[in-house]
Fold this protein.
Amino acid sequence: MFQQHYIRSDIKYQLLLSFAGLLLVAVLSIFPPTVTGDLSWRKTVIGSIFSSICVLGILAVFSPNRCLRIFNIGKKKKTVNSDSAKLVSHGTSTVLQGHHPTCGNYDAHIFRIKGKIFCAACVGLLFGGLLALAGAAVYFFGDWRVAEHSSLMVLLGIVGVSFGLFQFKFRNFVRLSVNTLFVLGTLLILIGIDELVHSLFFDLFVVSLIVFWLFTRISLSQWDHEKICSDCEIEDCRIK
């Protein structure tokens, strides 16, 4: 009980900072500061950093459990060996599919196509990462002019990130779409602020917020999984 309370308090703190960041982004879009001495290589640097984040995110989609271990998320100790941890005992042995237990408690987290099971959130993040990578290439390394739509892009980005933070409230294909919008929302915010402010400092500030939003979203997802398992009444579940 104490551990779960700690996790909830930590997530509330992350959410508070995440929405404070979104509010600051909105203020920047409405009252962009005047910056002198624009750097010619600003877009190249920011585009490279954001693209690297997208690539790392795409790679993490294919190995989410390893990614969580690397960043020390989910510190709960396991009492079973690595082989048995891959199974869920609900009377019969059931393998993980879409890296979720196949029990009905996780039906909202997955979708099926031709008998194959996929994680809705991961597929959404994959689609979003690929689209954001393409968009970053066109804007930061190409000649995509969006000056007249900058404020609107920031607004749409804020909406996308906000929905993405609460992706665990949605089911199946809607969850997939919301996760896609989450990643695209970060790109829209970064492009909008870059176009409005023309500042390396503020661009790096937005990139830092994007990383924080991503980790907040991961923490929320982990908390949701733990809550589902803690509410489960099956006593002999090996994952639990």
User: Anything to note?
Assistant: The chain has a mean pLDDT of 80. The CA atoms of residues 63 and 99 lie 9 Å apart. Helices lie at 2-30, 42-61, 64-70, 120-140, 150-165, 172-197, 200-230.
